Amino acid sequence: MRLFFALGLEEGINQTARAQLVAYKNRLSGVGHAVPDQNLHLTLAFLGDVPDAYIPRLQATVQDLQLPAFSITASTVEVWAQPRIVCATLASPPQALLALAHHLQTLPVWPAKADSHAFTPHITLRRGVKDDDALDLPTPPAQTFACQRFGLYASPSSSSDESIPRDNEGRALYQCLHQFSLC
To answer: Which of 94, 107, 136, 154 has a CA between 20 and 30 Å from the CA of residue 48?
Structure first.
């Protein structure tokens, strides 16, 4: 199962900021393919394909992390040529976010899949973006999210599996397997 740790951004306290981000994402029609609203998240560590037998050990190891809650403010939008996405980015990522990502990326029980790029916190809004889509993107409103929890998520690895939950457009949805509280 393909797993990743992420800030899900769906906590009740974040409803207004999340609604603004969804509205902004939907205003970008014609720019790539929209990420399903339910899949909006900030990836902390991508683990890759993890055998089911490791999931309880991952959960137990992460359950013991004692890291503080924090807030993030997504205030800019960027187009990244590779991996061809439009994403909301953070002008000033808090140190607590960077520490959380570092801890999750270096777990001894199952380390994050090696990435050639440094951790850059972002929320993917649209995929499959062409270079000329970067022209004239509207300025997003700044959205601040309170981050009191993060989750272990499963990403569908098969587009033909009928048991995978989907949105009303048939796009696969991520599944949160477990939530972890921040202090």
So the answer is: 94
